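Field: COMPLEX_INPUT
Field: COMPONENT_COUNT = four
Field: RESIDUE_TOTAL = 614
Field: MODE = joint
Values follow.
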Amino acid sequence: MLAAIIDSGGLGEGAITLNKSQPSVSRSVAMLEKRLGSRLFEKGKRPLRPTELCQVLAEQGRVIAAAGDAAQAAVDLYARGKAGTARIAGTPIFMDGVISGMIASFQSTFPGVTIHQSYGYLSELSEQLGMGSIDLAICPVRANAVPPDLNFKPILRGRNVIACAPSHPLARKSAFKLEDIAAYPWIAPPAGSPLYSDLKMALDSIGIHDFRVSFTGGSLASIISVMGGSDSLTVLPYSVVFMQRAARTVTALPVKLEHPERELGILWHVDRPVRPAVKRFHKFLEAEFTGLAHRIDERGREEVWRR
Amino acid sequence: MLAAIIDSGGLGEGAITLNKSQPSVSRSVAMLEKRLGSRLFEKGKRPLRPTELCQVLAEQGRVIAAAGDAAQAAVDLYARGKAGTARIAGTPIFMDGVISGMIASFQSTFPGVTIHQSYGYLSELSEQLGMGSIDLAICPVRANAVPPDLNFKPILRGRNVIACAPSHPLARKSAFKLEDIAAYPWIAPPAGSPLYSDLKMALDSIGIHDFRVSFTGGSLASIISVMGGSDSLTVLPYSVVFMQRAARTVTALPVKLEHPERELGILWHVDRPVRPAVKRFHKFLEAEFTGLAHRIDERGREEVWRR
DNA sequence: CAATCAATATACCATGATGTTATGAAGATT
DNA sequence: AATCTTCATAACATCATGGTATATTGATTG
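Field: COMPLEX_OUTPUT
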């Protein structure tokens, strides 16, 4: 109040800038003067001149007002999801191959939001969502296997492909027989991962029951690196291969695999309040994925799925 | 409150450090949560864990609390007279020769107090006290000439002496006749100053009616400087000469002059509130002057006043 | 210098934030 | 499961703060 009065040059003017009535401000000042035992404005001066003490207090008042404004601004940013934190976790290959790119693009539009990323499979993710240590999980889930305390929003059909380096002999042939595939070594995902069972199922579906695993346990970056330096094959979600297309590090063989019954989706806890930043990120992810699904469908028809 | 709760690790503990009851703090938090539309503490956690938003707001709260503490500290300092401003004015020779030294010693004990010094004679001082543009005036005043709206506190008898440089011929003689004095040129204070009439009266009292003025209009520093380089004489308050004793730039001739009817004193306005810093400075001045008066009396008996 | 104007102070009432004590509810712990 | 600690709620009191209406008082002007 003191700062407002001083800056606007009068008690009445000050009251206006404070959105208060003139008597209210007058009385507040009078009460403070009584409490301090010193005048805050010179006695008997009509354009109300501030005392020395008043100036000092006004200075602190300005600091307080600025902090109040900053707090208000922080609340606004937070409420509109433009500041805050979103903690997201998911299966490693997906996080590295798909989500991380989306996070980058999200952060270019919402630089105030901090993203905490971590990795895990369904059981850990479910537990962490329950404990509240993460906000969202991205994970392939069978529709009937969604834990009861979690919401599930599918975002992508779970289609896997056989992946290899663009330099792989099979990738350069326009046509090949399924038996040719059996000759090459395989990169297997970590044993616990859903992709590992996918791999077995997929190979079963094309009649390959016996295969040699040359490398296992690596993250996406390792897998791509190993593939690039060898003739190894692996099974990856098509979306992951698709996202790598610009880097030309991975390609998909035109082999139709049997698909798992799972869908990739976003999981979150049923009755845990959703922070605005999380909501914002969630919506962003969904939008990105519908866009991605379209582009995959368009391109997929041309390039893959032929046998 | 948020900062207190976070820092002391719990709502109850926070309430204690805030000197409030636990329910009061609890409800305040709840009201703020409702107003913000977001939680400030995690739901269902008993050692009450702060939300992200809460941390941000607590940060601003700490700023506000610090500013509040600073304001309180400023008020305390001000009320105890250890911070603030005192505006003092007085006759030039006195301000330069006596008061300025006291100001220096005052400021070494009260470095937070700002002293504004200015110069003037009784009429201006009286007016400025009336307008409130100065707080204290130091000036020789005749007891019956104190303006009615001013208080007057005498601090020193107005004794004048004939002053000269220590190297002056008369200062080196153990005895001399009054006629010898007439031979030397005089430094006269500014024509408007009380000292000027003192000069005439003093010389009249020892039978010198005709004297040559060699220099006039200067401040104390000029007068001392001119005296040092010449055989000029002047009339100065003995207190001024006394304060210069350490510098050995001025000495007093052992001539008994007739003294003006005025007393040096402190003037202040009757019904203007006295700021604590002014009060403090005022008391300090009075104490200094009683000390000075004693020392002058002791020494004066030995050195001067012999005829 | 009186009349007038603008600025501030006061009177009076309403409201709501904030304080208290007593007590209930719910995580945390053993 | 029992108990303890911690927090939330209930019920009430108080006072700062807000408003409108009006009085008071420096400032201004003819």
